[in-house]
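fyi for ur records
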Amino acid sequence: QEIGAQKDLEGKKILVTAGPTREAIDPVRYITNHSTGKMGYAVAKAAALRGADVTLVTGKTDTPKPRFVKLIEIQSAADMFEAVTAAAAEQDIIIKAAAVADYRPKSVGTEKTKKTEGDMAIELERTDDILKWLGAHRREGQFLCGFSMETQNMLENSRVKLDKKNIDMIVANNLKVEGAGFGTDTNVVTIITRERNLELEKMTKEEVADRLLDEILAVSADK
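which gave:
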């Protein structure tokens, strides 16, 4: 299958983001999420097998790294913002599959936070919105695809994001659907463009990756 992959992405530069971010509270603790990077890694691998020049910006994960890609490893949402915005201008396609923190601790302790009597509150601030930045700074002909993990109103929330962030496509999945979400080898997604919603049945993340790349090529050809 790897040798026989159709090289329909040859000459294309594709940037993929994957995995979680870690937002430090102090030198010992951080805020993160359950992302394993499996979906983004599957997209990066599929794109490389189809001949693309792939850059993978990834958070910390135990998932085996795909070969034949340029790997940029990051920790925080700020690191990911920096890596993606620095590489964005030269990319033909950007696929944002990472689970990036929306908030980070406002102040990071230089020493371990000591336990005291009573409760403790952590003040949070917004992280920079990478997808919104990409939509505002996109160059002509560049294709932008985001991922949207929802637990309710999946289609409505995703469609709003499509317009608000000025992107071409959203791959939406509902965490509550069996076979979808973090840590699984399968996914159940709906590929949303301005023209249509394409609901895919449960399939492996590798199959989702190939279908996603097929759709991006089809939509690009129509533009």
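The first helix runs from residue 38 to 49. thats all i got for now
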